[in-house]
Design goal:
It is a single chain. The protein is of the alpha/beta class. It has 8 helices and 7 strands, in the order E-H-E-H-E-H-E-H-E-H-E-H-H-E-H. A 7-stranded parallel sheet has the order 3-2-1-4-5-6-7, sandwiched between helices. The longest helix has 29 residues, at about 105-135. The chain is globular and about 50 Å long.
Length: about 260
Amino acid sequence: MNDKTALVTGGASGLGKRTAIYLAEQGYQLVINYRHSESEAISLAEEISNRYGTKNIAIRGDVANQEDCIRIVNETLSTYETIDVLIHNAGPYIHERKVMADYSFEEWNYLIQGNLSAVFYLSKLVIPVMRRQKWGRIITVGYDRVETAPGWVYRSAFAAAKTGLLSLTRTIAIEEAKFGITANMVCPGDITDDWKEKDIKESLEAAKDDSSVQRQGTGEDIARVIAFLLDERSDFITGGVLPVTGGADVLGKAFKG
């Protein structure tokens, strides 16, 4: 990988953690951003450093906060020469089901900042670095059918932010193509609980006794797609939306839930 460096927001657990591990296996140096999970992030950085012999660090910061984003990037560049890959995995989400009119101003603003403005903050800071080396990869995370701008009952702020994020991702793709920078959105399916950190092999083993049931999606499913988009030869794929849902009607299930 020529010691390429990837910054993964929300990388201490879940899909971010599994992605970080997969990229470490490919030879990337990792910057694992976390908000509260300090011990988990530091432990993960040490674990993958010991296992793969790469240089990895953990940096605290709330991506919804502009000053934190500036510090995250500055601390990264004080350790590494460049940032080659930016994976916007972190994004606040309110599990409580509430209609738009019941959101507080504070909740709405935090969800928009954490899922949309955060990508502007970090991308604005990182793109000049990528431009200088004429190479970069930016990955954002969406949800099922985000490209159709659907309404999503009880998830108004999150859905609005992610829909706006897709437009932003595609704009970055158009504007930065001449600098060798790509930007794509990956949309995970219904990957829940511990499955976010598990492997495909574990999912196949769990499903083998019942062929009528679709296997569970895993963190490795997402990590493999992200790694593909980061490849040198994936430079012609930009501004794309890649659903990783197993063909399931994820949003339809959410409507019925």
